[in-house]
L-seryl-tRNA(Sec) selenium transferase
Amino acid sequence: MTTGNDTRCRLPKMDRLLDWPELAPLAHAYGRRQLRSAARTVLEDLRRQLPQHPATDFSAECIVARIQKLLLRQQESGLQRIINGSGVVLHTNLGRSPLPAAARRVLLDTAWGYSNLEFDLTRGERGERSAHVEELLCELTGAEAALVVNNNAAAVLLCLCALSAEREVIVSRGELVEIGGSFRIPDVMRQSGALLVEVGTTNRTHPQDYRQTVSDRTALLLKVHASNFAQVGFTAETSTAELVTIGREVAIPVMVDAGSGCLLDLEPFGIAGEATVQSYVRQGADLVTFSGDKLLGGPQAGLIVGRRNLVQRLKSHPLLRALRIDKLTLAALQETLRLYRDERKAVDQIPTLRMLSMPFGEVTRQARRMVRRLRATLPPAITLRLHDGTSAPGGGSLPLVQLPTRLIEVTVSSLSAHRLEELLRETTPPVIGRIKNDRFLLDVRTMTTDDIPLLAGSLRQALEISHG
Ligand SMILES: *Cc1c(COP(=O)(O)O)cnc(C)c1O
């Protein structure tokens, strides 16, 4: 017999294992079915490891500990809070915008109780769910009417379905964009039944191109924000104002898919070139659609503002029922929009705006504070060093903007940057950073003071896991 076979015999049989009294508390806490499945996984893992470690002694204590750890990890997996040290402010994979604290109370009240979601308290009769934010949206953007749906993809789809099915929509060739994942303007258009008519060339589209293409089959002139890419060099774009002039000449509505939905001029914060929703409305766009969770800094939602007669057509379209906004989202959106009534409040209290607008001096102070507080609690095996770097707005917005930032390089005794990155994805909460030049880096811009104790805990856990 080989050594491998010998050690294999030291592993208990599954049925015997499940009868161990040490496992009774786990069966009680997690249920027998989950315990059995975890025990099987652990036994299989150990059996696989045996040939490499023939001398390892798998004591009962060790086996129970492994099962317990696995059950705990399963418990903590699933959707959960994480620490974003990536420096990407609007990270679609990390949930885009963290909500302002001001949304917490209404969000909880709406979740745990009944609400006037679709009930008009003044008249005592059925109301509209969008109504809670419509007036606010009109006030903030200067539009006549507003509507909210599940996300901006839904907003664009609804507009196209309601206003242009079976008819033509004219779009510049340079604006037929793909916004990550599965949102591509030509595909959405096909889905809606609208017929896409491309005008211009990839880099240049002139007002004349639209004028020559308009016909009695045209339902809509559509302008799409380039979002995640930028054109430089020999380019020409027909502005919203020019498109509106053409639209008025031929009595065809102009729709703008504004993408990020910026409600605040970001130029004072050194972020140039992002037009606000208000500016599209002012230039005469008949409909503007935008996201709730990109530059606006609220929950996932699709916001539509524009002319009353067009919004009315959207409201009576049967698709609206399938795209409607959820009450929790609506609660968070309402509170986020309210903050915009005072721009200073918005910048100060909406995390996305705060992170984007944070000047380098403040990032530096925050970095020093974080490092000082972390060092005070971390064991000497974990070392921290500050570097200069840049953060990205992300979320398909502002592709050319790089924000100067401070990065915390984390080193844990003998671990490589890659191993550390891997371990920190397993901790509670997981920590997402980036690796550059073999260094594991955490960007201070996308972390908050609240993250410090959690981050310290996760770093300690990573060190523990690495010790086995
Ligand atoms: C992000 C984006 C969308 C999709 O918005 P979601 O809210 O993610 O559905 C559509 N159009 C443009 C131009 C965008 O930037």
Notes: Confidence is low (pLDDT under 50) at residues 1-8. Residues 32-49 form the longest helix (18 residues). The chain has three domains: 7-76, 83-94+355-466, 102-349. The pocket of pyridoxal-5'-phosphate is lined by residues 151-153, 156, 179, 183, 224-225, 227, 257, 259-260, 291, 302, 396 (CB under 6 Å).
